[in-house]
């Protein structure tokens, strides 16, 4: 793969830059969707036991909008800035994000940084599983934190709400791309969160996020990424809105499009946990 400190970097790249004074590494691991209350805190506990040297833990549920009933919605500028300052992350830093599943929740935090106007941020390709499989260094020591100011300029074009997605669904002027598994998209199985209808946003296309990844959890190369979107009927010439269950894996679609040089994408932050809960919003099932 081609290392790009604005999208995706390899384990080789990260190991070579571990000593860089302006490098900041974030562990953005989170429990799988649908995990019960007993899973809360497991990602942080695993981080405390072992992590890539110098890493800080980024709690996606903490760095979110707690005024919303929806899970891990994008936080206010003030909250994002204060939490990142407490992690010692600010202007001038190169940020690399990883998670314990390979390439999962790290992409959500990458998108969140982009939303806040920070572009020197990349996801570690293959994440912690690849790093460990290659026998690279781990530690259990907390990092030394020094505050640094972060300048935030919100990029509102990167996020969409239900009203905007509803309009796009009716006008068909955007490609709405759903990252959930095919059975969930078609409405053949129940959603992992209770109380949600099954199906998808009318007019949306299905690109399960796993289809963008290799067997080892790394992202496919540009040629295969493009082929995956093409096979799903996605017209990459149109602006795109990504969606999923709760706005996490939709960010993997955004990352893949950024790797292809496509920048006219946005993420539906409420995703299916919002759309599927409102009986007045239309749904489709099957392949329609």
From TrEMBL:
Cited Gene3D superfamilies: Rhodanese-like domain
Main location (coarse class): cytoplasm
Lineage: Bacteria, Pseudomonadati, Pseudomonadota, Alphaproteobacteria, Rhodobacterales
Protein name: 3-mercaptopyruvate sulfurtransferase
MF GO annotations: 3-mercaptopyruvate sulfurtransferase activity; thiosulfate-cyanide sulfurtransferase activity
GO cellular component, one term: cytoplasm
SUPFAM superfamilies linked to this entry: Rhodanese/Cell cycle control phosphatase
Keyword annotations of the record: Cytoplasm, Pyruvate, Repeat, Transferase
UniProt key word NADP: no
Catalytic activity: 2-oxo-3-sulfanylpropanoate + [thioredoxin]-dithiol = [thioredoxin]-disulfide + hydrogen sulfide + pyruvate + H(+)
Places the protein is found: Cytoplasm
Residue span, Rhodanese domain: 19-140, 170-284
CDD domains, A to Z: TST_Repeat_1, TST_Repeat_2
Repeat as UniProt keyword: yes
Top enzyme category: transferase
InterPro entries linked to this entry: Rhodanese-like_dom (IPR001763), Rhodanese-like_dom_sf (IPR036873), Thiosulphate_STrfase_CS (IPR001307), TST/MPST-like (IPR045078)
Organism: Tritonibacter litoralis
Alphabetized NCBIfam families for the sequence: PRK11493.1 (NF008557)
Enzyme Commission code: 2.8.1.2
């Amino acid at each position: 793969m081609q290392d790009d400190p604005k999208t995706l970097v390899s384990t080789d790249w990260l190991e070579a830059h571990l000593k860089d004074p302006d490098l900041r590494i974030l562990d953005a691991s989170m429990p799988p969707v649908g995990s019960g209350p007993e899973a809360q805190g497991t990602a942080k506990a695993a981080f405390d036991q072992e992590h890539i040297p110098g890493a800080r833990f980024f709690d996606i549920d903490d760095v979110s909008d707690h005024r919303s009933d929806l899970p891990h919605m994008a936080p206010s500028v003030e909250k994002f800035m204060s939490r990142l300052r407490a992690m010692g992350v600010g202007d001038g830093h190169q940020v690399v994000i990883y998670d314990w599943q390979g390439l999962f929740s790290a992409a959500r935090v990458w998108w969140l940084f982009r939303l806040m106007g920070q572009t020197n941020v990349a996801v570690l390709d293959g994440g912690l599983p690849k790093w460990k499989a290659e026998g690279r260094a781990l530690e259990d020591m907390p990092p030394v934190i020094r505050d640094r100011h972060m300048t935030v300029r919100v990029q509102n074009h990167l996020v969409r709400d239900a009203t905007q997605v509803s309009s796009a669904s009716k006008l068909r002027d955007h490609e709405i791309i759903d990252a959930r598994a095919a059975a969930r998209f078609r409405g053949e199985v129940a959603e992992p969160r209770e109380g949600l209808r099954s199906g998808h946003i009318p007019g949306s296309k299905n690109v399960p996020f796993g289809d963008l990844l290799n067997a080892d959890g790394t992202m496919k190369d540009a040629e295969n990424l493009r082929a995956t979107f093409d096979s799903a009927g996605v017209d990459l010439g149109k602006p795109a809105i990504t969606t999923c269950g709760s706005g996490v894996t939709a960010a993997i679609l955004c990352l893949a499009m950024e790797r292809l040089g496509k920048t006219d994408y946005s993420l539906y932050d409420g995703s299916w946990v919002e759309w599927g809960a409102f009986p007045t919003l239309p749904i489709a099932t099957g392949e329609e």
